[in-house]
Amino acid sequence: MTEPIHVPKMITPVQLEIERKLGIPDHSLTLEKLKKWQLDRLNDTLAFCMNHSPFYKEKLADFSNSIPLRSLEELQQLPFTTSDDISEKGHRMVCTSQSQIERIVTLNTSGTTGTAKRIYFTKDDQQLTVDFFAYGMSTLISSHSKVLVLLPCHPAGSVGDLLSRAIRKIGAQPYSIGPFNNPDPINDLIASEKLDALVGAPKQVYTLVQSWKSSNRGSCPIQALLLSTDYASPILKKSIESAWNCDVLEHYGMTEAGLGVGVDCYLKRGYHLREADLYFELIDKDGNPVAEGEPGEVVFSTLTRHGMPLIRYRTKDISQIIPGECPCGTVLSTYKWISKRMQNEDSLCTIAELDDILFQIPEINGFDATAKKGTLYLKIYSDEQNKEELKIKISESILNTFPGVNKIEIELLAGFPSSAFSLQKKKIEYIS
């Protein structure tokens, strides 16, 4: 673990935000206090859903004798909510009148229905996110910071807008730019305004860094940045830290969970989660709880949301609890960074695994990947002149790592992939 450069050494502000919600003094949280809060809020949420949500009134009808729960473990008796449930019946999960819904986020889905998911938020639901963002961002910025926001800032209520509100709540100044398609003007802004913090997707930030280096701009004023929306390869994070001499932290976010889920502390060893607003479980492929320290699928239940509460929602994200206490001093668990999701059995490799291999080659600016049976098709973007040598290096690295890949076809292109400027999650496109 490298010593942080700029981020102050302090207990994770996520715990301070939880203590504020519980109405207890700073640094007084215990697991017993947290679990009591979670059980009370779970029972409130279950009662609220059964009274106001047609979907959950029907889904939980056979379990009414088990509610209220007497322990957190009893939640395991209740059925899961899935992505397909939201796609097919999401409107029946809404617990408030439409006049109270301030924001509806539409998500494309790869589920069996192919129907888009719609997630509904009230004004108070969105304020929960702003509050969490403010505490989370205080891990890496102060009231004097000038923060570049590269996440969508329009319309009102989008993730970049809520983040900008949180930054202003701290007293810092947001530069709410949103997604971009040309790194040069963004780097000009960083240099001219001496911006010292940044929030963006890994591929966005890596594009800025590669462009900064190729333009020979010298030292960068960015001191700390937060990567969000997608997996960040350790190699990619190390490259950013080295090029810009800055701290790189990760945020775990998901629209279904209210956008904010967890964030690194200064030690940068894993996420601390917003456990006053969300209750988490880790399960195996059969839906049973995994032992502490073992990987499992992340499942969450909302504790404080009213527009569209979710009970035992299966995220398909894979994580695990890192055993032992975090040296930052929190009593909260530390969750391993999300590096993969539930995969089809015939997958050649994951996009995260490709990131880990390809970003070890500094000449690569980005890539797109498709696969068909045992063949992997790569479009590699690089300004490297010795193309054949680069192709050989890439082929050897992948074939030696992934036994399911029988053949590789590589096309080398200059510049950056258009996907580097999209906030869609990176993935390998499988073709029939």
Q: What do you see in this structure?
A:
It is a single chain. It is globular, with a radius of gyration of 22 Å. Helix 1 (13-22) packs across helix 5 and helix 5 (123-137) packs across helix 6. The chain is an alpha/beta fold. The longest helix has 22 residues, at 31-52. It starts with 12 loop residues before the first helix and ends with a strand. It has a seven-stranded mixed sheet with strand order 4-3-5-6-7-8-9, sandwiched between helices. The chain has eleven helices and 17 strands. It folds into two domains: 1-342, 3-Layer(aba) Sandwich (Rossmann fold), CATH 3.40.50.12780; 351-430, Cation efflux protein, cytoplasmic domain (Alpha-Beta Plaits, 2-Layer Sandwich), CATH 3.30.70.
CATH classification class of the largest domain: Alpha Beta
- Unreliable sequence segments: none
Q: What does the main sheet amount to?
A: 7 strands, mixed
What's the number of domains?
2
Overall CATH architecture of the largest domain: 3-Layer(aba) Sandwich
Q: Give the overall shape.
A: globular
The number of helical segments is 11
- Taken in chain order, the helices and strands follow as HHHHEEHEHEHEHEHEEEEEEEHEEHEE
Q: In percent, how helical is the residue content?
A: 25-40%
**Number of DSSP strand runs:** 17
The helix/strand class is alpha/beta
Q: Over all CA atoms, what is the radius of gyration? A: 22 Å
Q: Please state how the strands of the largest beta sheet are arranged side by side.
A: 4-3-5-6-7-8-9
CATH superfamily of the largest domain: ANL, N-terminal domain
Distance between the termini: 42 Å
Mean pLDDT: 93
Provide the β-strand percentage band: 15-25%
- From the 3D structure, determine the CATH topology of the largest domain: Rossmann fold
